[in-house]
Design a protein that fits this description.
Elements: E1 10-13, E2 28-35, E3 40-43, E4 48-57, E5 63-71, E6 74-75, E7 79-82, E8 89-90, E9 92-101, E10 104-113
Antiparallel strand pairs: 1-2, 1-7, 2-3, 3-6, 4-5, 7-8, 9-10
Domain Large ribosomal subunit protein uL24 C-terminal: 46-119
Keywords: Ribonucleoprotein, Ribosomal protein, RNA-binding, rRNA-binding
Family: Belongs to the universal ribosomal protein uL24 family.
Length: 120
């Protein structure tokens, strides 16, 4: 099955706690990484968690470690791709379009936003 969400897509969180309560629902961000085996996506600025990192040293001798804030992966069912035209979440569909290249026609699968019909 083809991936409906890919790296670089603009997505919006559609489930979880509201922003007024400290949650991420309604926030938009760019997909940094996709984990297809776990059905999860890493979204920039979304689902930030504190992580305790063991103290150590880097190659220049500076101390590392402490408490860091990093993004954690979200399940793909909790995010929706943002329509490029309306800037609202939409479902993703696939359609075949014919492209002419070097004088011959070729069928290409294209992802599109179902709300507006625009290609993603």
């Amino acid at each position: 099955m083809a991936a409906k969400i890919k790296k670089g897509d603009l997505v919006q969180v559609i489930t979880g706690a509201k922003q007024e309560r400290g949650g991420d629902r309604g926030k938009q961000g760019k997909v940094l990484k996709v984990f297809p085996d776990a059905n999860r996506v890493l979204v920039e600025g979304i689902n930030r968690v504190t992580k305790h990192v063991k103290a150590g040293q880097n190659s220049s001798g500076a101390a590392t470690g402490g408490i860091e804030v990093v993004e954690a992966p979200l399940h793909v069912s909790n995010v929706a791709v943002v329509d490029p035209e309306t800037k609202k979440p939409t479902r993703v569909g696939f359609r075949e379009e014919t492209v002419e290249k070097d004088g011959e026609k070729k069928a290409v699968r294209v992802r599109y936003a179902k709300a507006s019909g625009k290609a993603l």
